[in-house]
Amino acid sequence: MGTDDKIDAKGDELKGKVKEGLGGATDDQGLETEGxxxxxxxxLKESAEKVKDAFKKD
Length: 58
Hints:
Elements: H1 3-25, H2 29-57
Helix pairs in contact: 1-2
């Protein structure tokens, strides 16, 4: 996994956690949902990079 890609994926996850927390604290369902989507996007990016790395090793 490239360093830039790893940082980007973790950034999405962190941004999502913050949005979800703020949405929950302010009772803003839209922001909370947006945070969950950002987290899922980060997890998906990270998984895709792990798959790429698995094929590079062969």
